[in-house]
Amino acid sequence: MHIKSIQKIKYMKIILIALIGLSVVAHAQSDKLSIEQATDIALKNNLTVKSASFEVEKQTQLKKTGFDLPKTDVSLQYGQYNSYAKKDNNITITQTIPFTAFGSQGTLNRSLVASTELKKAVTENELVYQVKQVYYQLAYTKARHQLLLQQDSLYEGFLKSAALRFTTGETHLLEKATAETQRNEIRNQLNQNEADILILQTQLKTLLNSSTLPEIQTENLSEMVANEIPDSSSASANPSLAYLRQQVDVAQNQKKVEAARLAPDLKVGFFTQTLIDVPDPENNGRLATASDRFTGFQVGLAFPLWFVSHQGRIKAADLSKQAAQSNYDYQQAIVEGQWQQAIQQLTKSRNSLIYYTTSALPNATLILKQSQTAFKEGEIGYAEYLLGVRSAISIKEGYLQTLNEYNQNKIHIEFLSGNK
Questions:
Q1: Is 70 helix (H, G, I), strand (E, B) or coil?
Q2: N or C: which end of the chain has fewer CB within 10 A?
Q3: Under 8 Å CB-to-CB from 266, ≥6 apart: which residues?
Q4: Does pLDDT of 356 surpass 60?
Q5: Annotated domain spans of the chain
Q6: Which of the pair, 218 or 215, is modelled with greater confidence?
Q7: What is the largest CA-CA distance in the chain?
Q8: Which residues, listed in sequence order, are joined to residue 297 by a DSSP beta bridge?
């Protein structure tokens, strides 16, 4: 085979291997969840949301009971009830129509459907809140893992240098022991941080109702997308408050149903019967036979004679309404207070982030670089070197903590406003 052909085949193999490698990397990247994908999967798969959906469907079916009539009464009377004839029969059909069937029960059922729909919205809002919390906490924990790896590399280099200096007699045992202690401490923190990552992944897996531990898209921890901060009126859109407002409406409609039960029930009926041997004065006194039917209808009212129980139910329903209104007012005050605190915390975190990004982080990078250079050139001892490294790392840790606090505050505000 020609040498050029062999080289061409080799190049093609190299290109093919490279393409396969890129495909694998792309596939791995596609398996990592964005925050939007995580929330969508949770809303689709989470069992609490599914349970809330079943409750909505159940109450929707119960809405059909708004015009709910008692069983129709059909009775037969047979025998000697009108004359000496022993084969007379009477068929009577009666129906009771409760006063609640004229609108009050239907209104209550519709308000109950709206209540379950709002309860589902509360469940979804809380689920999205939990997913975002865990997702960004996991992102922070992974970012901290990278920082710990950087520290581990620094202290590993420091340990090697200290061990060499101790072997050559340039320094004493204290420097080597200090370096080893620092390296081991970072290794311990790395192990703990890895356990925290696994715990958070397990939490996210449960929220997503997933069969595998999810991976998230976190190259670097960053600020959440800076949407416009809603004003304080957005707190009134909180799904929990909307649900509690609806509970007041449910209690009011329940009171109307109890009041309607105190009203008389309407009774209507129809009968058909025989009156054997009864003479017909309009037909020359002809006697009625078994084939002759006599029909009519009945109309009546059913009054409650004992009012105490009805009045008790009406009063109880009114107290339920007052309790629901009081609970709503209390929760509204709590949400408004949480809103103000969350805005203050967000402003605090934001100002701190500005300090870190404009001043502290650049200085930390400079301190770390200068400390490493000075220590390698023997201009400073290990104590000054450790002080510089710790100072720089502490600033970076503070930045990550502040960034995580900022994101969590933003998530809380979105939760209070219904994740709008």
A1: coil
A2: N
A3: 96, 97, 99, 299, 300, 301, 302
A4: yes
A5: 1-30, 31-416
A6: 215
A7: 146
A8: 270
DSSP 317-328: HHHHHHHHHHHH
**Kind and range of the H or E element at 266?**
strand 265-273
Give the pTM: 0.80
- CA-to-CA distance for 382 and 384, rounded, in angstroms? 6
Q: For the chain, give percent helix, strand, coil, nearest 5.
A: 70, 10, 20
First to last CA, the chain: 68
Q: Name, in order, each residue with C-beta under 8 angstroms of 370's C-beta and a sequence gap of 6 or more.
A: 388
Cβ pair 331, 244 in contact under 8 A: yes
Sorted by sequence, the CB contacts under 8 Å of residue 276 that are 6+ apart come out as: 82, 83, 85, 87, 88, 287, 288, 289, 290
Give residue-wise pLDDT tens across range 154-209: 777 766 666 656 566 656 666 667 767 778 888 888 999 999 999 999 999 999 99
8 Å CB contact between 224 and 407: yes
Q: Which CATH number fits domain 31-416: 1.20.1600.10, 1.20.1180.10, 3.30.750.24, 1.10.290.10?
A: 1.20.1600.10
The region that residue 284 occupies, defined by phi over 0 for left and psi between -120 and 50 for alpha, beta otherwise, is: left
Report d(CA 385, CA 328) in Å as an integer.
59
Backbone torsion region of residue 268, taken as left when φ is above 0, otherwise alpha when ψ lies between -120 and 50, otherwise beta: beta
Extended strands (E) in 29-140:
73-79, 88-97
Helices (H), 263-360: 308-355
Q: pLDDT of 378-409, one tens digit each? A: 787 777 877 888 888 899 999 999 999 999 99
Contact predicate 121/239, CB 8 Å: yes
| Token pair in block for residue 74 | 């059909």
Dist. CA 345–CA 351, nearest whole Å:
10
**Residue length of the chain:** 420
Predicted confidence at residue 329, as pLDDT, reads 94
* Nearest-angstrom CA–CA distance, 55 and 121: 12
Residues 6+ apart with CB under 8 A from 213: 198, 201, 202, 205
Give every CB contact of residue 399 below 8 A, 6+ residues apart in sequence: 353, 356, 357, 360, 361
Residue 296, Cβ density class (10 Å: 0-12 exposed, 13-18 middle, ≥19 buried): exposed
